[in-house]
Amino acid sequence: MSVNDHISESADRVDLAEGGSAAAPAMDDDVVPPGSINARADGGDSKLFDRSSAESNRWAVERDGQLLEAVNARFDRIEKALGATSHAVQHNHEHAMVILRDRAVAAESGVTQSLLRPIGRQIAALIDRVELEAVRKQAEPWSLLMSVVDELLDVLADFGVETIECAPGEEVDRARHRVVETLSERNGEGRELHIVERVRQGYEVGGHVLRPAEVVGEWVQG
To answer: What is the pLDDT of residue 206?
Structure first.
């Protein structure tokens, strides 16, 4: 070691002893300060968060789209099912109407036949009686005619058809009697229209008038 080297080393030792500090070593360009490292780390986390948020949004949109497609598909199936059900209901309704119509026709035909058979038998028997009396020529025409009327009234009575009462002096019932002639004028209040005589027979069934009786009336003091 030369004299100069000894002098330089001694000077360095004196500086250290007096509280001085050695020059700081130069910082390498690749070395990053701690604060800079944190800044880089924070910036990287922000970018990762943004990327994760975008992926989450894209996944949510895809999921909502799939759910919407599933809902639309379900609505399509429901619509098809309702259409098929409506067609089946309409077909069943038409079929039921045809069956009911056929049953109604059959029932009406059966009722008609059940009513006509006894009427036909009784009228046929009445015709036989009239023809027999006509061949014998023993009964007077008037008595034969009245007996025929009685027989016909009995036939009607068998089916619930009754004659409407038209007793003389009875008050006229406009629902059951038709006045074809009036023997007096209605002068003053409190007068009532009464039956004088029956002109034509009337008939009713269960309180329902088939044909009103025709009568001659007269106004009397009530």
So the answer is: 87
Q: Hunting for tokens 């089916």 — which residue is that?
A: 159
Q: What are phi and psi of 173, to 5 degrees?
A: -105, 110
Sheet containing 213-221: give its strands across.
177-182, 213-221, 191-200
Sign of the dihedral defined by the CA atoms of residues 107, 111, 114, 117, in that order: negative
164-222 sits in which CATH class?
Answer: mainly beta
Given this model, what pLDDT does residue 33 score?
46
Domain ranges of the chain: 164-222
Alpha carbon distance 139, 148 (integer Å) = 12
Can you list the residues of the chain whose pLDDT is less than 70?
Answer: 1-51, 109, 111-113, 115, 139
The pLDDT, as a whole number, for residue 46 is 59
